[in-house]
Write a structure and sequence with these properties.
This protein is α/β, with parallel strands linked by helices. The protein is built from eleven helices and eleven strands.
Length: about 300
Protein backbone atom coordinates (compact mmCIF):
# COMPACT_ATOMS: atom_id res chain seq x y z
CA UNK A 1 0.00 0.00 0.00
CA UNK A 2 1.34 3.44 -0.94
CA UNK A 3 1.42 5.62 2.18
CA UNK A 4 3.26 8.53 0.53
CA UNK A 5 4.00 9.91 -2.90
CA UNK A 6 7.53 8.52 -2.67
CA UNK A 7 6.01 5.06 -2.22
CA UNK A 8 3.57 5.78 -5.04
CA UNK A 9 6.49 6.66 -7.34
CA UNK A 10 8.12 3.36 -6.40
CA UNK A 11 4.88 1.62 -7.30
CA UNK A 12 4.82 3.39 -10.68
CA UNK A 13 8.31 2.10 -11.48
CA UNK A 14 6.96 -1.45 -11.16
CA UNK A 15 4.42 -0.71 -13.92
CA UNK A 16 5.14 -0.66 -17.63
CA UNK A 17 6.31 2.77 -18.79
CA UNK A 18 3.38 4.93 -19.86
CA UNK A 19 3.11 7.41 -22.72
CA UNK A 20 1.71 10.82 -21.83
CA UNK A 21 0.06 13.09 -24.40
CA UNK A 22 0.16 16.79 -23.51
CA UNK A 23 -2.15 19.36 -25.12
CA UNK A 24 -0.57 22.79 -25.70
CA UNK A 25 2.68 21.76 -24.05
CA UNK A 26 4.24 25.24 -24.26
CA UNK A 27 3.92 25.71 -20.50
CA UNK A 28 6.95 26.01 -18.19
CA UNK A 29 5.62 24.12 -15.15
CA UNK A 30 4.12 21.37 -17.32
CA UNK A 31 7.36 20.86 -19.25
CA UNK A 32 9.36 20.76 -16.01
CA UNK A 33 6.97 18.16 -14.56
CA UNK A 34 6.99 16.07 -17.73
CA UNK A 35 10.78 16.14 -17.85
CA UNK A 36 11.10 15.13 -14.19
CA UNK A 37 8.63 12.27 -14.68
CA UNK A 38 10.63 11.21 -17.75
CA UNK A 39 13.91 11.37 -15.82
CA UNK A 40 12.34 9.17 -13.13
CA UNK A 41 11.69 6.60 -15.84
CA UNK A 42 7.90 6.51 -15.46
CA UNK A 43 6.79 8.08 -18.77
CA UNK A 44 7.58 8.92 -22.34
CA UNK A 45 5.73 11.95 -23.67
CA UNK A 46 4.27 13.42 -26.83
CA UNK A 47 4.23 17.21 -26.74
CA UNK A 48 1.51 18.74 -28.92
CA UNK A 49 1.42 22.49 -29.46
CA UNK A 50 3.44 25.40 -30.79
CA UNK A 51 6.75 23.68 -31.58
CA UNK A 52 8.75 26.92 -31.70
CA UNK A 53 7.58 27.90 -28.22
CA UNK A 54 8.01 24.35 -26.86
CA UNK A 55 11.61 24.17 -28.09
CA UNK A 56 12.40 27.67 -26.81
CA UNK A 57 11.04 26.82 -23.37
CA UNK A 58 12.95 23.53 -23.33
CA UNK A 59 16.16 25.39 -24.14
CA UNK A 60 15.57 27.95 -21.36
CA UNK A 61 14.84 25.16 -18.86
CA UNK A 62 17.80 22.97 -19.93
CA UNK A 63 15.39 20.26 -21.10
CA UNK A 64 16.53 18.07 -23.97
CA UNK A 65 13.67 18.42 -26.45
CA UNK A 66 15.03 15.47 -28.43
CA UNK A 67 13.81 13.17 -25.64
CA UNK A 68 10.26 13.81 -26.79
CA UNK A 69 8.10 13.52 -29.86
CA UNK A 70 6.84 17.01 -30.71
CA UNK A 71 3.78 17.57 -32.90
CA UNK A 72 3.58 21.13 -34.21
CA UNK A 73 0.05 22.51 -33.89
CA UNK A 74 -0.08 26.20 -32.89
CA UNK A 75 -3.89 26.40 -32.72
CA UNK A 76 -5.07 25.56 -29.18
CA UNK A 77 -8.28 23.77 -30.09
CA UNK A 78 -6.69 21.71 -32.86
CA UNK A 79 -3.75 20.90 -30.58
CA UNK A 80 -6.08 19.59 -27.88
CA UNK A 81 -7.99 17.41 -30.35
CA UNK A 82 -4.74 16.10 -31.81
CA UNK A 83 -3.39 15.29 -28.34
CA UNK A 84 -6.53 13.58 -27.07
CA UNK A 85 -6.85 11.54 -30.27
CA UNK A 86 -3.48 9.93 -29.50
CA UNK A 87 -4.99 8.55 -26.28
CA UNK A 88 -8.29 7.67 -27.96
CA UNK A 89 -6.40 5.68 -30.61
CA UNK A 90 -4.16 3.89 -28.09
CA UNK A 91 -0.94 5.69 -29.08
CA UNK A 92 -0.73 7.22 -25.59
CA UNK A 93 -1.97 6.10 -22.17
CA UNK A 94 -2.75 9.40 -20.43
CA UNK A 95 -3.86 12.91 -21.35
CA UNK A 96 -2.63 16.14 -19.71
CA UNK A 97 -3.64 19.78 -19.89
CA UNK A 98 -1.00 22.32 -20.87
CA UNK A 99 -1.40 26.00 -21.72
CA UNK A 100 -5.04 26.22 -22.80
CA UNK A 101 -8.32 27.16 -21.11
CA UNK A 102 -9.89 24.40 -19.03
CA UNK A 103 -13.16 24.65 -20.99
CA UNK A 104 -11.35 23.90 -24.27
CA UNK A 105 -9.43 21.05 -22.66
CA UNK A 106 -12.66 19.52 -21.36
CA UNK A 107 -14.32 19.92 -24.76
CA UNK A 108 -11.55 17.76 -26.21
CA UNK A 109 -12.03 15.15 -23.46
CA UNK A 110 -15.76 15.00 -24.29
CA UNK A 111 -15.39 15.14 -28.08
CA UNK A 112 -17.63 12.46 -29.62
CA UNK A 113 -15.18 11.43 -32.35
CA UNK A 114 -11.74 11.53 -30.73
CA UNK A 115 -12.33 12.15 -27.02
CA UNK A 116 -12.42 9.98 -23.92
CA UNK A 117 -16.07 10.14 -22.92
CA UNK A 118 -17.72 7.04 -21.49
CA UNK A 119 -21.27 8.28 -21.09
CA UNK A 120 -20.73 8.38 -17.32
CA UNK A 121 -20.44 11.59 -15.26
CA UNK A 122 -16.96 13.03 -14.81
CA UNK A 123 -15.53 13.62 -11.36
CA UNK A 124 -12.28 14.77 -9.77
CA UNK A 125 -10.12 12.99 -7.21
CA UNK A 126 -7.42 14.72 -5.19
CA UNK A 127 -4.88 12.61 -3.30
CA UNK A 128 -3.12 14.15 -0.30
CA UNK A 129 -0.09 13.20 1.73
CA UNK A 130 -0.63 15.11 4.97
CA UNK A 131 1.88 15.25 7.84
CA UNK A 132 0.38 13.55 10.87
CA UNK A 133 -1.83 11.19 8.84
CA UNK A 134 -0.09 7.87 8.20
CA UNK A 135 -1.66 7.10 4.81
CA UNK A 136 -2.67 8.80 1.59
CA UNK A 137 -6.04 10.52 1.77
CA UNK A 138 -8.40 10.62 -1.23
CA UNK A 139 -10.81 13.59 -1.54
CA UNK A 140 -13.73 13.81 -3.97
CA UNK A 141 -15.29 15.78 -5.46
CA UNK A 142 -13.44 19.05 -4.80
CA UNK A 143 -13.35 20.65 -8.25
CA UNK A 144 -15.76 19.29 -10.82
CA UNK A 145 -19.23 18.05 -9.82
CA UNK A 146 -21.05 20.93 -8.08
CA UNK A 147 -24.07 19.30 -6.42
CA UNK A 148 -23.88 15.51 -6.71
CA UNK A 149 -27.14 13.64 -6.23
CA UNK A 150 -27.29 10.13 -4.78
CA UNK A 151 -26.49 8.34 -8.05
CA UNK A 152 -23.65 10.79 -8.71
CA UNK A 153 -22.22 10.04 -5.28
CA UNK A 154 -22.33 6.33 -6.07
CA UNK A 155 -20.33 7.04 -9.25
CA UNK A 156 -17.82 9.13 -7.26
CA UNK A 157 -17.36 6.27 -4.79
CA UNK A 158 -16.74 3.79 -7.62
CA UNK A 159 -14.20 6.09 -9.29
CA UNK A 160 -12.37 6.96 -6.09
CA UNK A 161 -12.27 3.38 -4.84
CA UNK A 162 -10.65 2.43 -8.17
CA UNK A 163 -8.02 5.15 -7.71
CA UNK A 164 -7.34 4.03 -4.13
CA UNK A 165 -7.01 0.40 -5.21
CA UNK A 166 -4.59 1.46 -7.96
CA UNK A 167 -2.50 2.96 -5.16
CA UNK A 168 -2.47 -0.37 -3.32
CA UNK A 169 -5.33 0.02 -0.85
CA UNK A 170 -7.10 -3.33 -1.01
CA UNK A 171 -10.27 -2.40 0.89
CA UNK A 172 -10.69 1.38 1.14
CA UNK A 173 -12.69 2.94 3.95
CA UNK A 174 -15.11 5.52 2.53
CA UNK A 175 -16.60 8.27 4.70
CA UNK A 176 -19.55 10.23 3.25
CA UNK A 177 -19.14 13.45 5.23
CA UNK A 178 -21.72 15.62 6.95
CA UNK A 179 -21.79 18.12 9.80
CA UNK A 180 -23.08 15.39 12.11
CA UNK A 181 -22.71 11.63 12.39
CA UNK A 182 -26.38 10.77 12.83
CA UNK A 183 -29.16 10.61 10.25
CA UNK A 184 -31.46 13.62 10.35
CA UNK A 185 -34.32 13.77 7.81
CA UNK A 186 -34.03 17.57 7.85
CA UNK A 187 -30.43 17.24 6.60
CA UNK A 188 -30.62 15.50 3.20
CA UNK A 189 -26.85 14.97 3.13
CA UNK A 190 -27.14 12.59 6.09
CA UNK A 191 -29.96 10.68 4.40
CA UNK A 192 -27.78 10.24 1.30
CA UNK A 193 -24.89 9.07 3.47
CA UNK A 194 -27.04 6.37 5.05
CA UNK A 195 -28.28 5.31 1.59
CA UNK A 196 -24.67 4.98 0.40
CA UNK A 197 -23.81 2.80 3.40
CA UNK A 198 -26.81 0.59 2.63
CA UNK A 199 -25.80 0.38 -1.03
CA UNK A 200 -22.32 -0.76 0.00
CA UNK A 201 -23.77 -3.33 2.39
CA UNK A 202 -25.89 -4.61 -0.53
CA UNK A 203 -22.75 -5.09 -2.65
CA UNK A 204 -23.20 -2.21 -5.10
CA UNK A 205 -19.52 -1.21 -4.96
CA UNK A 206 -16.20 -2.96 -5.44
CA UNK A 207 -14.65 -4.23 -2.19
CA UNK A 208 -14.76 -1.27 0.20
CA UNK A 209 -16.33 -0.16 3.49
CA UNK A 210 -18.75 2.78 3.39
CA UNK A 211 -19.76 4.33 6.71
CA UNK A 212 -21.83 7.48 6.89
CA UNK A 213 -22.80 10.01 7.81
CA UNK A 214 -19.57 10.92 9.54
CA UNK A 215 -18.18 14.24 10.68
CA UNK A 216 -14.69 15.05 9.42
CA UNK A 217 -13.01 14.72 12.82
CA UNK A 218 -14.48 11.29 13.51
CA UNK A 219 -13.57 10.07 10.02
CA UNK A 220 -9.91 11.00 10.46
CA UNK A 221 -9.06 10.83 14.14
CA UNK A 222 -9.64 7.90 16.49
CA UNK A 223 -9.38 10.22 19.52
CA UNK A 224 -12.32 12.28 18.27
CA UNK A 225 -14.34 9.10 17.69
CA UNK A 226 -13.66 7.91 21.23
CA UNK A 227 -14.53 11.32 22.64
CA UNK A 228 -17.88 11.27 20.85
CA UNK A 229 -18.64 7.62 21.56
CA UNK A 230 -18.32 6.65 17.90
CA UNK A 231 -15.27 4.38 18.18
CA UNK A 232 -17.27 1.35 17.00
CA UNK A 233 -18.11 2.93 13.66
CA UNK A 234 -16.21 0.96 10.96
CA UNK A 235 -14.58 4.04 9.40
CA UNK A 236 -13.95 5.99 12.61
CA UNK A 237 -10.35 7.18 12.47
CA UNK A 238 -9.72 4.96 9.45
CA UNK A 239 -11.11 6.86 6.45
CA UNK A 240 -9.10 6.58 3.25
CA UNK A 241 -11.70 8.36 1.10
CA UNK A 242 -13.56 11.52 2.07
CA UNK A 243 -16.76 11.96 0.05
CA UNK A 244 -17.95 15.56 0.19
CA UNK A 245 -21.63 16.55 0.02
CA UNK A 246 -20.97 19.26 -2.57
CA UNK A 247 -18.19 21.15 -4.33
CA UNK A 248 -18.19 23.97 -1.79
CA UNK A 249 -17.36 21.71 1.16
CA UNK A 250 -14.78 19.81 -0.87
CA UNK A 251 -13.09 22.86 -2.35
CA UNK A 252 -12.92 24.68 0.99
CA UNK A 253 -11.26 21.70 2.69
CA UNK A 254 -8.92 21.21 -0.30
CA UNK A 255 -7.75 24.83 -0.25
CA UNK A 256 -7.43 24.91 3.52
CA UNK A 257 -5.11 21.90 3.37
CA UNK A 258 -3.07 23.24 0.44
CA UNK A 259 -2.58 26.72 1.89
CA UNK A 260 -2.53 26.09 5.63
CA UNK A 261 -0.82 22.72 6.18
CA UNK A 262 3.01 22.88 5.99
CA UNK A 263 4.70 20.07 4.10
CA UNK A 264 1.57 18.77 2.40
CA UNK A 265 1.82 17.01 -0.98
CA UNK A 266 -0.95 16.32 -3.45
CA UNK A 267 -1.85 15.08 -6.91
CA UNK A 268 -5.08 15.27 -8.93
CA UNK A 269 -6.84 13.25 -11.59
CA UNK A 270 -10.08 13.49 -13.57
CA UNK A 271 -12.14 10.29 -13.47
CA UNK A 272 -15.03 8.82 -15.46
CA UNK A 273 -12.99 8.82 -18.68
CA UNK A 274 -11.66 6.00 -20.89
CA UNK A 275 -8.10 6.83 -19.84
CA UNK A 276 -6.60 8.90 -17.00
CA UNK A 277 -6.85 12.66 -17.51
CA UNK A 278 -4.53 15.06 -15.67
CA UNK A 279 -6.29 18.35 -15.06
CA UNK A 280 -4.20 20.58 -12.81
CA UNK A 281 -4.40 24.31 -12.16
CA UNK A 282 -2.00 26.88 -13.61
CA UNK A 283 -1.12 27.73 -10.00
CA UNK A 284 -0.16 24.14 -9.12
CA UNK A 285 3.55 23.57 -8.58
CA UNK A 286 5.77 21.29 -10.61
CA UNK A 287 5.68 18.76 -7.75
CA UNK A 288 1.86 18.64 -7.83
CA UNK A 289 1.99 17.99 -11.57
CA UNK A 290 4.62 15.23 -11.15
CA UNK A 291 2.50 13.62 -8.42
CA UNK A 292 -0.53 13.83 -10.71
CA UNK A 293 1.38 12.13 -13.53
CA UNK A 294 2.42 9.34 -11.15
CA UNK A 295 -1.17 8.95 -9.95
CA UNK A 296 -2.42 8.76 -13.55
CA UNK A 297 0.21 6.13 -14.35
CA UNK A 298 -0.88 3.71 -11.63
CA UNK A 299 -4.53 4.26 -12.55
CA UNK A 300 -3.68 3.57 -16.21
CA UNK A 301 -2.02 0.31 -15.16
CA UNK A 302 -5.12 -0.74 -13.19
CA UNK A 303 -7.42 0.14 -16.10
CA UNK A 304 -5.40 -2.04 -18.44
CA UNK A 305 -5.63 -4.96 -16.00
CA UNK A 306 -9.42 -4.77 -15.70
Amino acid sequence: MSKSFDELLSRVRQCSKKTLSVACAQDEAVLEAVDEAHSLGIIDAVLVGDETKIRALCASLNINAENYRIINEPDEVTASLTAVKLVHDGEADMYMKGLLPTKDFLKSVLNKEVGLRTGKPLSHVCVFEIPGIDHLLFLSDVAFMPYPELEDKKAIIRYTVDVAKACGIDKPHVAPLAAVEVVNPKMPVTVDAQALKEAADAGEFDDCIVDGPLSLDIALYEEAAIEKGAQDRPCAGKADILLFPDIHAGNLVYKAIVHMVPGVKNGNILTGTKAPVILTSRSDTKDVKVNSIALAAVVSERMKEQ
